[in-house]
Recover the amino acids of this structure.
């Protein structure tokens, strides 16, 4: 276990095998005053107090300061997934202590089995990943999370604890096979770990290279638009590119944990001959506008079709059209930028407006920003510069 004895550590201590093992190894290398253990008692299981007691006794014996967060929550009323809710509570608690004591790193006791299980799960679930398995070092709210026992197998950990007669808690949820992870856990043979780790390593190297290339490209993207010539007909590259493009423009959360299929379908559409494609996911509009892919936040768009006299001050400012509309103030004069709905029946010199614009290869995106002024009775447009 690589650990620097000069640094100060906040250690996540659940009382289970892994974190007790991590701390046992840690106290052998680092002075106790450089370690603070943090335990979260969720009061979720009937035996939660046993875990807390094990942590208290371990820390007392090893002269380590222990911070405990006692969670009071009515679990019948919890409306979200327990695991992700619980994870946020404990990571926030770790960060709070890291800042309070001005320590350097947070240590979490994931082991090699967790890493391999995560890898197998990622492959089965076919989600977009940025790393295969569990990374040794990550960040949470600017705090460094380090996993010093990621190279230890569960069997090695148990052997060490039993040999040294160290007391640990049994996590009763581990025995419950209804969870996917536990099903995978049961089917894994540690003898295959070297081979799986090698496969994981190769995939991660490839993924890292791709992410780095994509990031260089995405860094230079302006106006939330991607030139579709940047796609490479390489599945991994294209998927990462679209994902990073969405992520850097604030829409990554829509795709975290989502099946890769969603991004794959988007890419398939982008390669089609269609010059216009509009994909909507919650507040996101992805617009293929000929050779450009544009990200639009629906809440940034103002789409109208109404009599000119009903334009609000905000709308006049948004379209910067004060001067233009002052020329028209009759009641049968309407304004619109709702090109998807109105341009098929509006006419310019008796031709449908959308056909004229398509012929001119007018960008679909820009149509939302040019206000069309038209006569409601004959549907002819009046601002002929369009
Ligand atoms: N109740 C707890 N109190 C303090 N630390 C905990 C607690 N539960 C988990 N941890 C820390 O997190 C590590 C991983 O725990 P576990 O495998 O249960 O979580 P996970 O959901 O797989 O991963 P994650 O840490 O990302 O939530 C533990 O070994 C321990 O270091």
């Amino acid at each position: 276990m690589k650990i620097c004895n000069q640094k100060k550590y906040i250690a996540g201590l659940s009382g289970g095998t892994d974190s007790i093992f991590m701390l046992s190894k840690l106290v052998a290398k680092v002075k106790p005053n450089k370690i603070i253990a943090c335990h979260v008692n969720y009061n979720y299981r009937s035996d939660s107090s046993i875990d807390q007691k094990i942590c208290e006794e371990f820390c007392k014996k090893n002269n380590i300061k222990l911070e405990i967060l006692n969670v009071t929550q009515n679990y019948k009323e919890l409306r979200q997934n327990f695991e992700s809710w619980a994870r946020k509570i404990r990571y926030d608690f770790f960060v709070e202590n890291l800042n309070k004591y001005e320590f350097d790193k947070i240590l979490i006791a994931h082991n090699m089995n967790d890493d391999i299980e995560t890898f197998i799960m990622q492959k089965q679930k076919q989600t977009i990943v940025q790393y295969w398995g569990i990374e040794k070092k990550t960040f949470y709210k600017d705090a460094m999370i380090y996993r010093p026992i990621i190279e230890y197998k569960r069997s090695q950990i148990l052997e060490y604890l039993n040999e040294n007669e160290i007391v640990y808690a049994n996590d009763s949820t581990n025995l419950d096979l209804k969870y996917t992870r536990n099903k995978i856990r049961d089917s894994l043979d540690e003898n295959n770990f070297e081979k799986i780790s090698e496969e994981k390593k190769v995939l991660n190297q490839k993924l890292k290279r791709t992410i780095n290339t994509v990031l260089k490209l995405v860094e230079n993207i302006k106006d939330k638009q991607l030139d579709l010539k940047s796609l490479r007909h390489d599945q991994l590259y294209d998927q990462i590119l679209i994902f990073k493009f969405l992520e850097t423009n604030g829409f990554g959360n829509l795709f975290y944990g989502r099946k890769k299929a969603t991004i794959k379908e988007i890419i398939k559409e982008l390669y089609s001959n269609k010059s216009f494609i509009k994909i909507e996911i919650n507040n996101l509009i992805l617009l293929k506008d000929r050779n450009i892919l544009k990200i639009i936040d629906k809440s940034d768009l103002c789409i109208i079709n109404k009599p000119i006299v009903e334009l609000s001050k905000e709308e006049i400012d948004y379209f910067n059209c004060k001067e233009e509309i002052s020329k028209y103030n009759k009641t049968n004069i309407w304004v619109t930028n709702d090109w998807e709905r109105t341009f098929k029946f509006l006419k310019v010199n008796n031709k449908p407006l959308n056909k004229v614009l398509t012929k001119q290869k007018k960008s679909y995106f820009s149509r939302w920003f040019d206000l069309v002024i038209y006569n409601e009775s004959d549907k002819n447009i009046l601002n002929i510069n369009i």
